[in-house]
Amino acid sequence: MITRKKIIAGNWKMNKTSADGVALVRDIVAAVGKQADVEVVVCPPFTGLEAAGKALEGSNVRLGAQNMHHEAAGAFTGEVSAPMLRAIFTTHVILGHSERRLYFGETDETVNRKLLAALKNQLRPIFCVGETLAERESGATLKVVQTQVERGLEGVGKDHAPSVTVAYEPVWALGTGKVATTEQAQEVHAFIRGLLVKLFGEPAAQKVRILYGGSMKPSNAPELLAQKDIDGGLIGGAALEARSFVELVNAAAAAR
Ligand code: PGA
Known about the structure:
CATH architecture: Alpha-Beta Barrel
Strand order of the largest sheet: 7-6-5-4-3-2-1-8
Oligomer: single chain
Strand content: 5-15%
Helix content: 40-55%
Distance between the termini: 13 Å
Bound molecules: 2-phosphoglycolic acid
């Protein structure tokens, strides 16, 4: 049986100045900087990336961005490209977060372009999918997730598939304190795993990490992380303080 290394990724969203981010990273590094059993990723806003990257140098903590443009360079005011992220030692990038889809007009097609560009530049995408409350209540969850997964991953070869991490984030659970039940989460995670098997074949699909995101915190993490297809978490609110983030990393290490 394949064992997948769990990932705990902190999505700071539009929080923390560069200096505040450095302070947070220092605390995280002091507590879990040598953790080798869990892939720990922090995703500050663009302005904090470089300083955070320096603060985590020499540790096992990895650096992720929250978005990027699919082109490498050009007349795209306000945007940042994959080579720019790579140049400051970014290793991961969150793509297609529901807030990007909802507030910034991202579609399955734009997310797909970004994902292919990230892979081309050796960045590891944390590719977000998930249904809204209305979609869940109308019974459309699996259909919505299927469309997002299939369109978002179009053109990805099976050799590249294991570099992709999928994050299942039910929109109704983001920042709301409403967490999906473990059964609700595992059901969708297993469904996503099945889609990945169809797209990439069993061996590659078994290597893909599928994270849960949506009000994950130390109190609910152990049960979620114990599920067969839940390979870690994409954490918003609880990633903004070292103590809760570190507890989540420890919970993932214990759930191995
Ligand atoms: P949350 O956010 O943990 O605050 O619900 C997760 C996310 O939006 O990635």
